[in-house]
Amino acid sequence: MENYDVGIIGAGPVGGFVAGKIAEQGFNVAVLEKNNEVGKILNCAGLVTSRVFDFLEINKKNVVQNKIKGANIHSPSNNILSIGGDRVHALAIDRCRFDKEIIKKSRDLGANVLLDNNVLSMQKVGNKIELKTSQNKEFTCNLLIGADGPFSKTRDRFVFPEPLEYVRGIGAEFVDTDLDPGFAEIFVGNDLAPGFFAWIIPTNNSGTEARAGLCINKNASYSPKHYFDKLLKQKNTQEFLKNAKLKKHIGGIIPFGTLKKTFQSNVMLVGDAAAQVKPTSGGGIYPGLLCANHCSDVAIDALKKRDFSSHFLKRYHKLWFNEIGRELNMGMKLRKIFKNLTDKQFDKYLLKFKNPELLNTISKHGDIDYPSKLIKPLIKKAPTLIRIIPSMIKNK
Q1: How far apart are CA 305 and CA 211, in angstroms?
Q2: Number of alpha helices (DSSP H) and beta strands (DSSP E) in the chain
Q3: Which residues, at least 6 apart from 384, have a Cβ–Cβ distance to it below 8 Å?
Q4: pLDDT one-digit tens code per residue, 139-176
Q5: Closest to 275 (Cα-Cα) out of 216, 334, 331
Q6: What SS3 state is found at 5?
Q7: In the chain, which end has fewer C-beta atoms inside a 10 angstrom radius, N or C?
């Protein structure tokens, strides 16, 4: 039986980042990944802000495919609201390469990454965690970190709270698209993407390659594929996709609603396993890395002090929640409002925002990672908006 200071389940960007940061301090770290290749399964739209690179020592040029300066939002009646355009607001990344670069860095720093090792059992024995994998490997570790995604085995095994909601996503990569390379195309409507939205994101600087996809909530009448097929045939998308060729399918599940507890003795959860995901966009890379930074720091302190108690590890939960927890909770309130909008209201409010002052406010204050920053400036410019967000204002 092999012994490690830290066992990390999941070799995605969050697990990989945690592994590298802890290994860099000289601790013995094992990363257990169920797939036989890092980044093999793509389940992400691959749109991030430049903030993610504040945490990572990887070369941007290796992973950034395109710079996005704005978005065209299409209502159900295809009224179009164009926002941004003045500066780079987001980056389209090669998600598979992104994951591989992070894991390569963690290996260089000393982490042992074990692919094709699905964790079959985990249990606490004394003051350690024992693990067994599909490759008949057995491990013990002082600290177990679950970075194993929306249906986390770690979360389930150690009886942590569940996310409040899951949405199902589907998409594909395309070539021969016809897009403005600086703008993402966003489509809203209950017949198209009930409970969420659809997107087409240009992934090169000529607009000839793209990722398109959508998410739907659990109450949707049909499967994600049904809505995706409908998206591809829709008149609103034909100008972008009429000559496009599908290259690769993507899909996955996104958890929303942060857990009220992400620690117990010898165990911490991080990333999608802890539902540290933006409910307004479904993006989990930035909040996941931000929380992973705190997870790593607390893990390093625990290892130095040899204290893996729940009392010691609770500092991790306090740190990440104080930094981004309230923002994610606000995102759930915004999401609740969004889910309740009818197609008629989507059209109405999109037209309302077609106002030069409001567009300038959105461009100036809009932030994909921190959407709540836009609330007060928008209400100041358009006080009538307060009618649609009373619960959010009351509980802010």
Answers
A1: 46
A2: 13, 18
A3: none
A4: 999 999 999 999 999 999 999 999 999 999 999 999 99
A5: 331
A6: strand
A7: N
- For residues 198 and 214, the answer to whether their CB atoms sit within 8 Å is yes
Q: Map 312-363 to HEC letters.
A: HHHHHHHHHHHHHHHHHHHHHHHHHHHHCCCHHHHHHHHHHCCCHHHHHHHH
Contact 23, 106 (CB under 8 A): yes
The rounded distance, in Å, linking the Cα atoms of 145 and 142 is 10
> 119 has which bridge partners?
133
Q: DSSP letter at 325?
A: I
- Gap between the Cα atoms of 80 and 186, Å rounded: 9
Structure tokens at 394: 């009351």
The answer to whether residues 155 and 273 touch, using CB atoms and an 8 Å cutoff, is yes
pTM, rounded to two decimals: 0.94
The model's pLDDT over 180-238, given as tens digits with 9 standing for 90+, comes to 999 999 999 999 999 999 999 999 999 999 999 999 998 899 999 999 999 999 888 99
Number of structural domains found in the chain? 1
Instruction: Give the span between the Cα atoms of 208 and 211, in whole angstroms.
Output: 11
State how far the alpha carbon of 222 is from the alpha carbons of 58, 69, 71, in Å. Answer: 41, 33, 27
Q: Flag whether 142 is in a domain.
A: yes
Gap between the terminal Cα atoms of the chain: 50
Tell me the β-bridge partners of 90: 68
- CATH label of the domain that carries residue 112: 3.50.50.60
Q: CA 379 → CA 65, 349, 361, 389, distances in Å? A: 35, 14, 10, 10
134-to-127, 152, 205 alpha-carbon distances in Å:
24, 17, 43
Question: What's the domain range around 125?
Answer: 2-44+96-164+259-335
Give the pLDDT score at 394: 43
What is the residue type of 170?
I
The pLDDT of residue 85: 86
The alpha-helical segments, DSSP class H, found in 235-309 are: 235-241, 285-305
* Single-letter amino acid code for the residue at 302: A
Q: What is the pLDDT of residues 108-128, one digit of tens each?
A: 999 999 999 999 999 999 999
Position 64, amino acid: V
